[in-house]
Amino acid sequence: MNDDDVREIALSLPATSETYPFGPEAAVFKTTANNKIFAILSAPGNPSQTVTLKCDPEESAALREQYESIIPGYHLNKKHWITVSLDGDAPEDLVDQLIRDSHSLVKPKMPRARG
Asked: What is the pTM assigned to this prediction?
């Protein structure tokens, strides 16, 4: 998986925007409805491409034990974020699902119907 694959997956998700608030070093993907970050992609050309994602704390701990390429989130809350090396041992389908799960964790929740 490479940065173009991550970008394609992220932008295919509902109500998503790509921004560069930290400069060209990192693409930041947010949900447009609440402006919350769900993925941070390291700059193209970086020798070690990574994507940082929001993750359930229990799942995060299990993933870090299972894959060398998944570490605590770089410069973020280590309990709720992971950083995945795109050229590491994590399977592409897992990285794809982690991007989708991260989006799901931050997207606005629908209000419960009153009944």
From this structure: 0.90
